[in-house]
Amino acid sequence: MAAPAMPCGEEFHPEAAIVNYFGLGDMLGGHLDDMEKDWSKPIVSISLGCKAIFLLGGKSREQTPIAMFLRSGDVMLMAGEARECFHGVPRIFTDPENTEITPLESQFSDEDHTSFLDYIQTSRININIRQVF
């Protein structure tokens, strides 16, 4: 997934993953992913569970962000100038009318997966894969 955003002639070497768990009422305030030594490498972000609003701002907090939905199964690539932009998740949708997880629910509808299904109906998991060095 990272290959299209890599500098010419370089390969992506994933070295770390951050897992964000969102439950009822959780959010992730505007921030920069600035811990990597080299910002020329992309971040691969995978969303699972409830739909969320993702805000992508600019290089300062004063710039008005662009809002977009992230749904279960979406993969987002943050690369280039986007690596230097503030971003956050102000809301996840946990009400049944707006979660948009029907395809995921249908895969885990048997009795063996009841606990997982109960969890994912009101939660969101985001996995960020990155090259640190």
UniProtKB/TrEMBL annotation:
Domain named Fe2OG dioxygenase: residues: 13-133
Transcription is among the record's keywords: no
Binding residue positions for Fe cation: H31, D33, H87
Keywords: Dioxygenase, Iron, Metal-binding, Oxidoreductase
Family annotation (Gene3D superfamilies): Alpha-ketoglutarate-dependent dioxygenase AlkB-like
Cofactor(s) essential for the protein: Fe(2+)
Entry similarity comment: Belongs to the alkB family.
Protein name: Alpha-ketoglutarate-dependent dioxygenase alkB
Species this chain originates from: Abeliophyllum distichum
